[in-house]
Give the backbone structure.
Amino acid sequence: MKKFFQLLAVSGFMTLSVPALAQFSVQESFNASGYTYSFFSLASTETDQTEFEQDKNGTGRIATYNYLTVGTHVNYDLKGGLRLPFSYNTAGRDRFNNGEVQNQEIFLQDLILFLRNDSLALLPWDVSVYWEGSLYLPTGKFSRQQGTIGAYKNHFIFSKILSRSFDWEYDQTVKYTDQSRTAYKNTFIGDQGDEITVASLTKSWELKHRMNIWYKMDSETGVGLQAGLEDTYYNSSKENSKSLDRSVPLTKPTEHLVKLGPAARFALSNKINFILNFTDVVNARQNMKELGQFRSKNTEVALLSFVRF
Amino acid sequence: MKRLSPFLLGPLSLSLLFLIGCSLAPKPAEKVKTKDDQVVIMTYNVENLFDAKDDPDKKDEEYLPRAVKSSPHYQSICYQMTNPYYQKECLYKDWTETLYKRKISRLADVISQVNQGHGPDILVLDEVENIGALKDLAAAMPSLNYKTVELIEGPDERGIDVGLISRLPMKEAKLHDAGIKDFKTRGILEVELILPDGKPLYVLGVHLPSQAAPTSARRTVFKTLAKVKKSLPKDALVYASGDFNVAAREEAKEKLFRHDAQEDWAVSHLIGCKTCQGTYYYHSKREWSFFDAFLFDKRMTNGKAAWQVDPDSIHIFNDNIYQVNRWGSPARFGSGMKGVGVSDHWPLVATLVKGQTVVKNQKGETP
């Protein structure tokens, strides 16, 4: 519980320092003319990391991914702009680096150029379609480390208002990352506390599906249920083959994550609103049977903050 | 589970959607008739009900297909607009026949749900381009048996007018000047209908100048409306309805309803609709307003007329799924490309009852 309030405090600090207006499923709304400025923050923590004893020098860290957006109308149908993303992580432990306490850090992530159409199409049964295409430029430290040339993300949201109380959304994201190399040098702290360097494979495709059902308590408050799949496909590397003749390339099986959990949305004002997710995350190949059990090692708490100037 | 398809949720969710889409609202099988002792009335600002054809006498270039207005003729008209927002709408809004039909279909869906699926007996509509659009709307609700469709073209600069459709027969209609000299605006539509008992009912349809105009403009139309009422026969049964464009903050300060209107009328949201928030919502100001209202001849509320308004019947109709957006306020039709949206106003509904029944009810007696 302490960690939850800490999460709120971190996110609250970040949002209140940049006041703005927000919407529910789509983070920004655009002025009829001129430029629109907004801010988005995703703050998350792993619940099992919060359960460590205090004598191990601190608890789980809170990781945030944030961006400032400058947007405008590109033409009558399309909006576009630039997102300036950065991460801020508090000091503490995460699931990486063998539970070692990490220092707080702030660093630039990949710059994003985006185009979007809020009303791409209206499908039968009055299903609205939202589209956003994004180009990621390799300005972040991880992208530079992995030799990323760029990434393209295609994002659709299909939505329908089912009744006065219920909304439905199906969210689909496909992201392709163009890499200059198939593997990169990855260093971390091993079980024995020693520094280990290995060849890690770079990502090629990421597919995400998420379905939400929301119950509206009032215009700004609601509770929902979310279910999703996240698949990550990796490149293979002949150069890093463990066989001497390099006939067997280094590969990594596709990662299939399954997510399920409740959510709540609420607002501070017409310029700031939040979505709080409590998500059970399991790997379909490893611990699928644990889905829905919300074991602490599988759960994540995330607070999404939407702010508009 | 050995391998999970990444597209599993897609088909599943679409199947769920299909099941939901299959639920249909019941529709009356036979043509609806007006009751002898009860008339349901409604007022509805339908937010730019424009057809997709050019009317050379109107500034309706915004509401044309983009393919049509790509010609130099329309481009030059649009570029003459000084307001950047309206210029852009004029140049690029793609108002097609498909969108027009979708708009008509959603409006018909809303109206058909009123009065337990029987629709109102009298409906005053604001923001209608022409009588053709009104006839298309009436034709989209064949079972509701609307025989009277009336709209008289007025001088409004945007080309929108006040119209009326009804199951009651019409005797006469005329358009009164709103009394504003500074700019051209909608007139006051007077329609004389015949009630089921043969008595005349005068309906005055209004659409006052928007909030872009000063309060004095709306006050002038309230005065004109009072004059029109006085010009009618002394024992005439009369009510006015429409979009009065009085914002809540303006009402708190200027008291257009409480002072100006109440001198001559009984105002719908002051005599009933006690739990109503308003018919229009300003998102930027987070403010509900009673833009839309009925003004009843006071004799229709004190038992002195043959037909009385039932104060308990006055309500906002927003049961239709197209009418409410994510934030619980009126869902505008806008570009017509959203799953919800029909008008940025919610309609107001009331029931006129023949005899003294309503007055007895107000005293707490059993009817």
